[in-house]
Amino acid sequence: MTSTEQSGGMRPTKQRRAVVEAMESFADFRSAQEIHELLGERGEPVGLATVYRTLQRLADAGEVDQLRTEDGEAIYRRCSETHHHHLVCRECGATVEVEGPAVERWTRSIAAEHGYGEVSHTLEIFGTCARCG
Amino acid sequence: MTSTEQSGGMRPTKQRRAVVEAMESFADFRSAQEIHELLGERGEPVGLATVYRTLQRLADAGEVDQLRTEDGEAIYRRCSETHHHHLVCRECGATVEVEGPAVERWTRSIAAEHGYGEVSHTLEIFGTCARCG
DNA sequence: TTTTTTGCAAAAGCTTTGCAAAAAT
DNA sequence: ATTTTTGCAAAGCTTTTGCAAAAAA
To answer: What is the DSSP letter of B97?
Structure first.
């Protein structure tokens, strides 16, 4: 199992490989448009619509994390192996991954308490990092 | 201090009052367009642009909570007094407010651990409520 | 050959902005 | 008289979609 492997019914096209490889070339969150631009600079241009379609499928397949910025733009990042949350610097965007087993447990019990099932959650922490603060 | 009071340099216009009052007529999150429509039905039509501008200012002033749906749409709700989180039904949108002092403490300590200051966070829990599940 | 994917351009949807008229100070 | 706010229509943006050509199975 290589890291560029894809799941399900996706045909391994040049474009899809390019997007997946691009996703592995950075560790923070990028917008679809930024990724599209990056691909162009790399000399592997992929149509913007294709970038959107590919990222959406990768997100559905759980192969990339998808977030929304405060102004509603979708941003994507390759997944790490375990479920975790993000500590993001408001100024420079520096991201730290944090795990929170306690939070996982808490959300599940709160949900159960109110009769909710199939629980998922999103938790993002914002702050000013040491360099920017 | 009445509940329709406004802060800072906002002039108390008919439209602004209408938006603030509309916000107090429901307890869940609504989009700007829904609020605009609601105002029309109430017989107090307010221009869509004005609704957007007003909601933005109220959000900046901390008088309403602003969230993003999964597809990037901004939704608004009047603030309750205390900081809390939301347990939202994926199917019908039913919302329960939950408090989590433990979470507050945890996020602050995680952030401090990484040298981040001025911490804020967002936590939303999604699930299927008893009626929909 | 049949099915999926691409790329382009057009459309969609939410949100913002320019500007002159109206309202508040 | 000044300054802010409104409403409309016109952009602006990100994202989605239709469709014919290209690629994969």
So the answer is: E
Q: Where are the domains of chain A?
A: 7-78, 85-127
Q: Are B26 and B32 in contact (CB under 8 A)?
A: no
Q: Check whether residue A15 has its CB closer than 7 Å to nucleic acid strand C.
A: yes
Rounded to 5°, the CA angle B26-B45-A73 comes to 65
Q: Is the dihedral of CA A68, B123, B50, B54 positive or negative?
A: negative
Cα A49 from chain centroid? Answer: 18
Which residue's alpha carbon is at the shortest distance from the C1' of C16? B49
pLDDT digits 0-9 by tens, B66-75: 888 888 999 9
pLDDT digits (tens, 9 = 90+) for B30-58: 999 999 999 999 999 999 999 999 999 99
Among chain B residues, CA nearest to A87: B111
pLDDT at B61 over 90: no
CA of A53 to C1' of D16 (A): 9
What average pLDDT does range A35-54 have in this prediction?
Answer: 96
Nearest nucleotide relative to B48: CA against C1': D7
| Tokens describing residue A94 | 């520096």
Q: Which CATH architecture has domain A7-78?
A: Orthogonal Bundle (1.10)
Burial A76-108 (b: 16+ CB within 10 A, else e): bbbeeeeeebbbbbbeeebbbebebeebeebbb
Please tell me if the domain spanning B7-78 has the same topology as the one spanning B85-127. no
- The CATH number of A85-127 is which of 3.30.1490.190, 3.30.2350.10, 3.90.1150.10, 3.40.50.10170? 3.30.1490.190
